[in-house]
């Protein structure tokens, strides 16, 4: 899903007191090259707010680099005057679900305009007892902007990719894109046996640290180290799957190492495609200031400020 809006637009008359904007050149009529948007953590997930195109209603979105498409809640289709544009299959951690595809959505993040070509509407979202979000910002959002998350200040900064330059001291990690979502190489270090290098999806929509597919768990005997008394279930599209808790001796991403990292070991199936060990969630990412720069196929990890 390539970016569809070539430049940030400042919307006249929009009043969002919690947002600040930085213009490329304040002495001209240049539109802002970056905006700062506050976010909050809700049950481990990053929630950001935007204004809808038609109603100017404030909507809450979950920021999810592991989701291949942006979604909107079924209740909002009529209010936002979205037009049906076909259907697609959403593949989740526990199965598949057919979703409607709709055109005509546009969202304003304090002057940063995001107009995805299509948004998905997942029928099961309407069955939720509690509606704690209005949608999910998926792959095309990350392609539209360079997305910078600073957990220390709870701020998301959106940069124009063509104007973004990085000159900091953060760890630059290469990203691969077998499909819509980013994949990195990382290493699991064991206490008394050889380390294992594997490929992991980056999933900011996961509230855990690591989720590991059953094949990877079994091949590396992690099931032997898993705590059978600590069972859990991970929720997602298609339902839920059972997991067990384990502690990894050390996990290395680039030059960054994390000791005694918690992992959810899938008892069957996997949260990711074949060939991937699992995914890296916000339990890891929130320890850093993270820059998602899809235009240059890289992720940058820096110190939280």
Could you write a compact summary of the structure shown?
The chain has 305 residues and is mainly β. Helices cover 7% and strands 47% of the residues. It contains 4 helices and 23 strands.
Strand content: over 45%
CATH structural class of the largest domain = Mainly Beta
Major sheet characteristics: 13 strands, mixed
> Rg from C-alpha positions?
20 Å
Regions with little confidence, pLDDT below 50 for 5+ residues: 1-30
Counted up, domains total: 2
Helix content: under 10%
Order of helices and strands: EEEEEEEEEEEHEEEEEEHHEEEEHEE
- Strand tally, please? 23
Derived from helix and strand composition plus strand pairing, the structural class reads: mainly beta
Please report the distance between the alpha carbons of the first and last residues: 32 Å
């Amino acid at each position: 899903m390539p970016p569809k809006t070539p430049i940030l637009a400042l919307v006249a008359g929009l009043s969002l007191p919690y947002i600040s904007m930085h213009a490329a050149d304040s002495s001209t009529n240049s539109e802002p090259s970056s905006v700062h948007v506050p976010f909050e953590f809700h049950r481990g997930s990053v929630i950001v707010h935007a204004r809808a195109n038609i109603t100017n209603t404030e909507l809450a979105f979950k920021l999810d680099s592991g989701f291949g498409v942006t979604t909107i809640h079924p209740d909002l289709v009529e209010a936002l005057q979205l037009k049906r544009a076909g259907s697609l299959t959403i593949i989740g951690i526990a199965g598949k679900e057919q979703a409607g595809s709709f055109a005509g959505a546009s969202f304003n993040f304090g002057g940063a305009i995001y107009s995805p070509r299509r948004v998905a509407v997942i029928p099961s979202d309407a069955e939720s007892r509690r509606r704690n979000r209005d949608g999910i910002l998926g792959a095309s959002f990350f392609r539209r902007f360079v997305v910078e998350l600073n957990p220390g200040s709870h701020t998301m900064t959106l940069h124009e990719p063509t104007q973004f330059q990085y000159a900091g001291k953060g760890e630059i990690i290469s990203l691969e894109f077998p499909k819509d979502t980013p994949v990195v190489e990382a290493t699991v270090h064991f206490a008394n046996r050889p380390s294992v290098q594997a490929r992991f999806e980056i999933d900011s929509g996961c509230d855990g640290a690591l989720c590991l597919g059953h094949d990877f768990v079994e091949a590396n005997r992690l099931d032997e180290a898993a705590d059978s008394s600590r069972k859990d279930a991970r929720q997602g599209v298609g339902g839920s799957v059972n997991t067990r808790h384990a502690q990894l001796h050390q996990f290395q991403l680039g030059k960054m190492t994390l000791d005694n990292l918690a992992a959810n070991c899938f008892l069957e199936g996997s949260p990711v495609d074949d060939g991937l060990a699992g995914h890296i969630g916000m339990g890891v990412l929130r320890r850093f200031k993270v820059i998602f720069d899809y235009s240059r196929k890289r992720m940058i990890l820096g110190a939280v400020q």
